[in-house]
Amino acid sequence: MRRVYIALFAVLTAWGCTPVHGVSAGSVSGLVRDSAGVPQIGISVQLLRPDLTVLATVYTNAAGRYTISSVLPGRYSLKAMGTSFLPSLRENVRVRSNSLVNLTLNTFYEVMQWLPAEPRSGNAQKDDWAWTLRSAANRPLLRWLEDGPLVVVADGSGAAPKLKARLMATGQEGTFGESGERFSASVEDTPSNSRELLARVDFAPETDAGMESMLGFKQELGFAGSVQSVAAIAVHPEVEGSGAEDLTEAAIRTWETMNLGDEFEVEVGSNQVLARFARQSPNTIAAALPFATLGWRNGDSVIRYRMATFIPGTQNGDDTEAGTWLPKLSVHNGSLALEHGFHQEIGWERRTDASEMSVMVFADNIDNPAIEAMGHFASGNGVADTTLFDHSSGLMRVAGPGYSSTGMLATLERNLPGGNRVRLSYANGDALVMPPVPVATTSSPRPSTMGKVLTGAHVRRNQMYALALSGTLEGTGTRWRASYRWQPDDSVTRVAPFALDSIEPYLSLHVRQPLRLRRDETGHFEALLDVRNLLAEGYQPFLLNDGSLLVFAQDQRGIRAGLSFTF
Questions:
Q1: Which pick of 40, 126, 490, 540 has the fewest CB atoms within 10 Å?
Q2: What is the pTM of this model?
Q3: Taking the CB of residue 471, how many other CB atoms lie within 10 A of it?
Q4: What residues form DSSP beta bridges with 79?
Q5: What is the CB neighbour count within 10 angstroms for residue 445?
Q6: What is the pLDDT of residues 305-353, one digit of tens each?
């Protein structure tokens, strides 16, 4: 299998290093309207290079539309000018093939209605837009270009300030290795238009050395793609297993994204994983887990092949948390075990401004699938010695039997009125199940050990249905997301475990409420609430013959609440 990885990586690398000749030119087109939405005739539209020098000039037709042909792929700016209007500038326009960019013109009076009611405070965040006129939301509105004209500014990328820091205090329970109070600090920095840096540190004050941290770096290579690296580490002093304690896990993920012309996109990379207990324990894991993706783009559609060997420990979609990049560990036959496997998929997806649809078929081979349970042990029971056990939360993990699976996953997302969004998902495939133990009898007594309990775990074909709704409440700025993912109660592993951006099992709720204290919004508090498996579904209890109770679940009920401050 290693030879297959090496051969695939060599082919993709050689392909990515091959010069791309005859890059096809594209076009930029769109509609120019005023603030009321009326199309404007005879408006001058200029295509500008990054240094704002004019590359081409066209005029809108009777329907207010313009087209600029023979544009090479790259990043540009567009400027629209017309009588009685202020010029409008749209920056960071990325052209690949046929790009659609609509522009809006405003009069000086209309812009004046957006200006702040009072000057910005002296300690407001400074960035490269500091000398422009701003709105009450601290967004840049008017800018003087080097050649003199005043323009209405719109940054197509929606870029945030160059430097942003965030402090957060949370209390949570029901999460392996992360229960109790936690404090985190994160910093996002964009030193230039082509580089991004993100750092975060989490620590638990009630432990001696409980900590999680991550550091991410991204280098944009223009139209060619990007290079990214993420390093994450977690120290769990209260986690023990196999007679050792103080678990440390680390992962370094590096990958490169390449655009081969306008149609092909390639991503190749690897996860380097290390895990061990303290005090020179022989229980050590070191693994290199490669991955690769090849996509062919045709208009709004993409056909993609993906190969992966790494299953992340959490799939909550928050790239700033260390757990997103760390593996899921457990214990197998008295030794640390890493949940991993070999995943292949072929999928099709189509994206528009209003909706997104995808369908993919997959084949998986999974080793050491991590099964999670909550334990209440009788005195002297040795179950905790044969599992990865977290004393602070009472949760444990053990490796189940490996298995293979084939299946499919289909997802549909669509925008709803009011800025809301709905997502529907369906999947089928194999998963581990642990059916309830029958009532103990003389001929069939209760199991005595964890190993005896796991003998009942087996593979079964399952289906999964998921619904998610999300949006932002007007006026309050409350961001919310409610989701429900169903699969049979006795299943203890996910259907399609390699799926990206997976919805949490059963009923979950996420709420973010901004609490702004300054009119210029340069700093604000945010209250947050995350609830997983709100109804406590999917629990499978097992009673041992000594009175110990093990309750298995695909996902435990977890609650996290806290307050963050961004400045």
A1: 126
A2: 0.69
A3: 18
A4: 46, 89
A5: 10
A6: 999 998 866 655 567 788 888 888 988 888 889 999 999 999 999 988 7
